[in-house]
Amino acid sequence: MGILGKIFTWWDGATIGTAIYSWRKGKAVGTDTEGNKYYQSSDGKRRWVIYNGPNDASRVSPDWHGWLHGTHDGDPESYLPPHRGYETAAIPNLTGTEGAYRPAGSIERGGHRARATGDYEAWSPDAL
Q1: CB neighbours (10 Å) of residue 33?
Q2: C-alpha dihedral over 3, 26, 61, 96, to 10 degrees?
Q3: What Rg do the C-alpha atoms of the chain give, in angstroms?
Q4: Whole-prediction pTM
Q5: Which terminus of the chain has a smaller tally of CB atoms within 10 A, N or C?
Q6: Average pLDDT, whole number, for the chain?
């Protein structure tokens, strides 16, 4: 993306104003596994993220989410327990992509629902 794109877009990476503010007043705190960079103001009152790619809040890992919202001080390695083998990696929001959830019967999957089975009984007030 060229310099004009950086000046006028906010949906794909940081705008030029945020990049300059991060360079001048921000202190780099760390990066996550996706390459997102986390910053803090010199007085410690503001925290923000510069995304590596499209701006999507679901791309912030749960580890760094607590730090961004001031729940914890220090980088996640200082307050989180070690990674356990049964934990899976967080996935981003897939809405609007090919990987989005489309249940049976949805329009994207043909719009055909399975027929109801015989285990359903309609409620009737006279049945009591």
Answers
A1: 10
A2: -30
A3: 23
A4: 0.60
A5: C
A6: 78
